[in-house]
Amino acid sequence: MSREIRVAIVGCGAIARHAHVPAWLNNREAAIVALCDPETAAADIIRDRHKLSCQTYRSLDDVLERERPDVVDICSPGYLHVEQAQRSLEAGSHVLVEKPPASTAAGAEHLARLAASKNLKLGAIFNYRYRDLIVQLKQLSVEGALGDLVKVYITHHGPLIFSEAPWLWNEKKSKYLVWEFGIHFLDILVHLLGPHERVLHVLPFEQPAVGHTTDLEVSIAFAGGAVGRLEITSDSLRHSTHFTHIQAYGTGMDAFVRWFPPLLRTTAGQLTPMKAIGDELKAAWTIGQKLVSGTFLRERNISHYRTIDAYVDWLRGRGTYPVRFEDILPTIRLLEEIGRQVPSYVRDESAEAERPGAEAC
Predict the structure, then answer these.
(1) DSSP states of 51-95 as a string?
(2) Are 9 and 55 in contact (CB under 8 A)?
(3) Is 146 helix (H, G, I), strand (E, B) or coil?
(4) What gap in Å lies between CA 333 and CA 224, rounded to an integer?
């Protein structure tokens, strides 16, 4: 593929508008040739904001037939991903899929086999692996600076679900807290600790006033001997602050990550006041530089730029994409096992997570 890579964006919501489209436009080897969304206004907003001359469509089938894109980038509601990815692969397009890449391991395996049979490249967007702090934390682990990781604890408190897209409010379809929200942090655990051995406990909290499972605590034993823990909430009625903390405990050194202001602190023994002050000054300096240089807003989504650039490199034969469907099966299997223990997800087994609905392109 020596010419410009022709990309069709399927699903024109916030993630496409703020992350995918700017990332594709930033890559000089790609061009967006189609926007697809059943709500034409959503596609028009993207086209107008970024001054695109591409066609807009309401139907994925029309995109595949008329545009024959090299790549279909799927940013639609998660429960549509498997069906849309399959149609795109069958039409001969490479496929990149936002999270969740599939809602079952069987669905992910099926797509991986289909892509391999057609010699097409199928990748997932697990962009948190490309965030600065996670890249640095992973590098410390790979280099052995932390020794052997024995525990990784993640706490994330986010906003109420109703601040998100309306399609997510249907918990039976979106399985929001695990498959659309917690997936990032569960994948970080797998990224750092490898495949899991067993889920030790799942403690979901269903908030009657909200009508959703809004809080979840999970403990996981990993095959390498480490233990991972995730405590996550999307209920600002019960938690007043929004924050993300990651605590990685190793035999050689511990690492502590704070999302904002961005901070990665490594410590062995007692933390001294001077080191704590120095770390905070460094975090403030990093944010200040980005604000003064005007790069702060762009770099909020830098992980998507890096993910899509890596995918383009894979298409061009410049290395292997590390988030192929074959590579992320351990994360999907973990999500599936946890999801089976959330009562609100399994209460109505007739709701097929991967059956296309009214929002389908």
Answers:
(1) T---EEES-HHHHHHHT--SEEEE-S-GGGHHHHHHHHHHTT-EE
(2) no
(3) coil
(4) 16
Per DSSP, helices labelled H in the chain are 14-15, 21-26, 40-49, 60-66, 81-90, 105-117, 132-143, 171-174, 183-193, 273-293, 296-300, 302-315, 329-339, 343-346
pLDDT tens track, the chain, 361 positions: 658 999 999 999 999 999 999 999 999 999 999 999 999 999 999 999 999 999 999 999 999 999 999 999 999 999 999 999 999 999 999 999 999 999 999 999 999 999 999 999 999 999 999 999 999 999 999 999 999 999 999 999 999 888 888 999 998 889 999 999 999 999 999 999 999 999 999 999 998 888 899 999 999 999 999 999 999 999 887 788 899 999 999 999 999 999 988 999 999 988 889 888 898 898 888 888 888 888 777 777 899 999 999 999 999 999 999 999 999 999 999 999 999 999 999 876 544 444 444 455 7
Q: How far apart are CA 89 and CA 154, in angstroms?
A: 36
Which residue has 């918990």 as its token pair?
171
Fold of 129-293: Dihydrodipicolinate Reductase; domain 2 (3.30.360)
Which residue ranges make up each domain of the chain?
5-124, 129-293
Which architecture, in CATH terms, is 5-124?
A: 3-Layer(aba) Sandwich (3.40)
Q: How many CA atoms lie within 13 A of 182 on its CB side?
A: 31
Beta pairing partners, 255: 248, 266
State both tokens at 361.
Answer: 């392109």
Distance CA 147, CA 144 (A): 5
- Tokens coding 108: 């992910």
Query: Residue holding tokens 């702060």?
Result: 296
Looking at residue 298, its amino acid is R
Q: Is 169 exposed, middle or buried (0-12, 13-18, 19+ CB in 10 A)?
A: middle
- Read off the pTM: 0.92
